[in-house]
Design brief:
2 copies of one chain form a homodimer. Chain A is an alpha/beta fold. Helices cover about 30% and strands about 20% of the residues of chain A. In chain A, α4 packs across α9 (about 240-245). The radius of gyration of chain A is 19 Å and the shape is globular. The interface between A and B is large, with 36 and 36 residues.
């Protein structure tokens, strides 16, 4: 479960059907041409393009205007016993990455997307605002670049987990006064952006990760006066994400709040609202 | 006069004193080291840095935290008979650029700033939203790259001026449905940003030029889903701006609403509110 699932449940998008887009599973059937996948343990990219538009021809299915997205847009998701996906979307999970870690491949890929968009190097300082599921993955991914990374959060128990993961983490109000080259806004709340504008240096970069529904208020003129660059950032590459999970550079165990059966979905959603990562297992009774 | 002057008059910033930051004048006095400037007709960059901070050491006085800005921040402006400025800020005006055109050097420089920040090339399509003073200068500057530029506005009489300047210009509601590689938000209103999000392609760029005071509302999640890049853009380089005015690539005559004396300042401000560019001339009676 991720924050997007909670938003969909609140009705933030016109999606009906089975949600869920962070998953691991075993391929049980495939067309003959893809039969080599049968029996393999896989994770999967969640965007499926039309295959014909300019975006698809450039292999950027994430922006195909006619795309479906697993459990988010026009396609059944992973809170289910079975799920269908084109073989082109599959990535085999290395043996060292257990199921509990493998479900993080999708959000870790979304974190890796930042490295495709912004030059994050060892001489940069980065603030990640948001101590939730995504924030703590992003901070770990950015740490692999050698950059100085600090997490700003609002929940002491999550900040303790951040520190256990080796991250420098502060209650936002108590964080050292500093402005950063890069600020990642991963609070899940519209108000996070104004805080990002306070924390970023002039001509610095704000990475936008929050997809909360509806409009929100921001002090746009500050972005103009400081000539800030803001970059919307969504889905990312699975191969480096799996490599980071395999090497242990990104740790996920402290982020798991609990496992639930599909029958216990109500308790699972409740736990996801107050906790970090909640896993649904169709094989649990 | 520019939109910022009207905002300052409304109290949008804690500035008191003489406003005005778009000007042309003749140097009447200078310290001995700068005496070669005396008698020359000049325009001037408006940011003055402390000379000691990291920004100033990197020659980016526009972001010096202790900067003053002519007529905007901590320094008397140009609605006056005389004005003091460091010689380093001066640019001599070519003879071919008359006074009425020379006052546009500062906003044309701000338009040229976009070319430093964003790659605008002949294969790109650009929409400029806003048919005001700045929008019509930006559109002309971007046209010099060979890019396809369209202006979206709300005032038929300004759109007619845009067309007279050789620009493709539409009433926003009647503009052809298209999404652009680059959208420049120069409406002077917070609402302009959501329109920019509608007009920009996925992974496209929005240049933010509006510095209207206060907070405004926007649909931030759209920027994330479409992975849009937004870039705040402020002051720019004077040398290319003067060259564009000299060559006639940027035309200013149709943008001038009228000339007023300092004594007629009230009428001048009224004209600036409803018109395009208003000039104050201290030598007018």
């Amino acid at each position: 479960m991720c924050g997007t699932d909670l938003q969909l449940l609140r009705g933030s998008a016109p999606f009906t059907g089975i949600p869920g887009h962070e998953f691991v599973g075993t391929v049980i059937d495939a067309p003959r041409a893809d039969s080599r996948w049968i029996g393999r343990r896989v994770v999967g990219e969640i965007n499926i393009g039309c295959g014909r538009c300019e975006w698809c021809r450039n292999r950027i299915k994430e922006h195909c205007p006619n795309r479906t997205v697993v459990g988010i847009r026009g396609r059944p998701g992973a809170f289910a016993e079975r799920l269908a996906l084109p073989a082109a979307n599959l990535h085999e999970v290395p043996a060292e990455v257990d199921d509990e870690a493998a479900v993080f491949a999708e959000p870790v890929a979304a974190a890796c997307r930042i490295l495709e968009q912004v030059e994050v190097s060892a001489d940069r300082t980065v603030a990640v605002i948001g101590d939730g599921r995504l924030g703590l993955l992003i901070a770990q991914v950015l740490m692999t670049t050698g950059a100085t990374v600090v997490v700003h959060g609002r929940h002491e128990w999550k900040l303790r987990i951040a520190r256990a993961l080796g991250l420098e983490a502060y209650a936002d109000a108590a964080a050292p006064a500093a402005r950063h080259d890069i600020v990642v806004e991963a609070t899940g709340r519209g108000e996070g952006l104004n805080r990002a504008l306070e924390l970023v240096k002039p001509r610095g970069t704000i990475v936008l990760k929050t997809t909360c529904d509806g409009d929100s208020s921001w002090t746009g003129w500050k972005a103009v006066v400081d000539e800030v660059r803001l970059i919307g950032s969504r889905c990312g590459p699975f191969a480096p994400a799996l490599a980071l999970l395999q090497s242990g550079a990104v740790k996920t165990k402290p982020l798991v709040t609990g496992w639930f059966s599909l029958a216990d979905h109500q308790a699972a959603f409740d736990a996801a609202r107050s906790g970090l990562k909640v896993l649904l297992d169709p094989h649990l009774e």
